[in-house]
Write a structure and sequence with these properties.
Layout (H helix, E strand, L loop, with lengths): L1 H22 L6 H24 L4 H22 L3 H28 L3 H30 L4 H23 L3 H4 L2 H79 L3 H18 L8 H16 L3 E7 L8 H24 L5 E9 L2 E9 L5 E3 L2 E3 L7 H12 L3 E7 L2 E7 L1
Helix pairs in contact: 1-3, 1-4, 1-5, 2-3, 3-4, 4-5, 4-6, 6-8, 8-9, 8-11, 8-12, 10-11, 11-12
Length: about 425
């Protein structure tokens, strides 16, 4: 029985030290592996000297000083950090309780004694260690790259349990005596840790949501910029082509006039004029960015058989930045165009009516478009379960809220209405 207990003590020591190293974010070179192996062997040798040379029972009481402290120092040297290696050792100590509790469960089921517990712990050591290294260690190591506050929250429960276990079970008998404070302490810690976890996850989720919205807005800005550049490049290329061909046009018209073919010359001039008009940016208002966006979507609507009417009264200077205006109009018109295209697929008419103007330093926008009867809302915001959709609406809301403005979405009688005031 003594030999089984001794082997079990060695196995739990190796279990905790190897798991501590696995939890620590270290690039394991051959030199560091040799150093870690030598450190584990030295710690085990020191334990053996005290176990056989002094008193076997005192090993457990001196464990923090003869095992955990030198192990922490060794990991700090290998990791070149102090805080996370300490948490790794505490977390590994907490994980040691898994094998201990499972062994106690086996003993309780089969009514065994200390020999069965030692044997059960010994048998479960390697499988549990491999499972923790394979599944848990990568996630634990990733936390070492988080802000120091999250590292502290992660290490809180292992640290409290470490102090609780030694104070109530090893150095005193408070836990075995059944003191209410001692018995209820760890459930209290679990409750507090759970609440901290919920708060942190909620805050992390809000932060991630804001980052996703920002990323979506940036993506829309990039897409719109690409469209604007493409439109400008196409316009420039056509202008260059017209300039290059102007000499030929003039020669042809001159020949028509010299030969008295005035009707043919007039028709040719009208043809060139129509071609130029079809490719120019339509002027809806004084704002150049708005004109470019309206022209782009008007052309897309026309190509899709959708009627788009624009009433715009925007000056060049408005209370919204040009990039935000581009994202706002592009998202709203993209959603309107998509809804109308869906109606066209069903054989129904698609109409988009845009009204935008500036008054008293405020920008007002209203877009009415054809839609189906199945528009869903969540707290006044239209929602969809289509993959990749819904980002535009969130971007619109984020921009309006950024300017402390107001937005309203509504649907009825086959029409979807967006109203914005910034």
């Amino acid at each position: 029985m003594i030999s089984v207990r001794l082997i079990n003590l060695i196995s739990v020591g190796v279990f905790g030290m190897v798991l501590s190293a696995a939890f620590c974010d270290i690039l394991w070179t051959r030199k560091k592996i040799f150093a870690m192996s030598g450190g584990i062997a030295a710690i085990l040798l020191f334990q053996g000297i005290i176990y056989f040379g002094v008193d076997p029972d005192i090993v457990e009481k001196l464990y923090p000083f003869i095992t955990h402290l030198p192990l922490t120092v060794l990991l700090c040297i290998l990791n070149r950090k102090c805080f996370w290696p300490t948490i790794s050792v505490l977390a590994a100590y907490l994980c040691c309780q898994i094998r201990r509790w499972l062994a106690l469960l086996i003993v309780a089921i089969f009514a065994g004694g200390s020999a069965m517990q030692n044997m059960a712990e010994l048998v479960m050591t390697l499988p549990i260690l491999l499972i923790l290294i394979w599944f848990a260690a990568p996630a634990v190591r990733s936390i070492s790259r988080y802000p120091i506050l999250l590292q502290c929250l992660f290490g809180l429960v292992p640290a409290l349990y470490y102090g609780f276990d030694y104070l109530t079970r090893i150095y005193t008998g408070l836990l075995l005596e059944g003191g209410a404070v001692a018995v209820e302490f760890m459930p209290f810690v679990c409750s507090v840790a759970y609440l901290f976890f919920v708060v942190c996850i909620s805050q992390e989720r809000r932060t991630r949501s804001r980052l996703e919205q920002t990323q979506a807005i940036l993506n829309m800005q990039v897409e719109q910029s690409v469209r604007e550049i493409a439109a400008l490049r196409e316009s420039q290329e056509k202008t260059g082509a017209y300039r290059h061909d102007m000499r030929h046009h003039m020669q042809y018209l001159s020949a028509c006039i010299e030969n008295g073919q005035l009707r043919q010359a007039q028709g040719y001039i009208q043809e060139i004029y129509s071609e130029i008009e079809a490719n120019k940016v339509t002027v809806f208002c004084e704002n150049e960015a708005a004109n470019l966006i309206f022209s782009t979507f008007a052309k897309r609507a026309e190509d899709s058989g959708i009627l788009m009417q624009v009433k715009a009264g925007l000056p060049q200077l408005i209370p919204v930045s040009e990039t935000d205006l581009c994202v706002l109009l592009s998202n709203a018109l993209e959603n309107a165009l998509y809804a109308c295209m869906e109606q066209r697929k069903k054989g129904r008419a698609g109409v988009i009516e845009v009204s935008v103007y500036e008054k008293n330093g405020k920008l007002f926008l209203q877009i009415i478009n054809s839609c189906g009867e199945d528009v869903a809302f969540d707290d006044g915001i239209p929602v969809t379960n289509r993959s990749g959709h819904g980002i535009g609406v969130r971007s619109i809301c984020a921009i309006v809220e950024q300017y402390d403005g107001m937005y309203a979405f509504s649907a009825g009688d086959g029409q979807f209405i967006l109203r914005i005031s910034i």
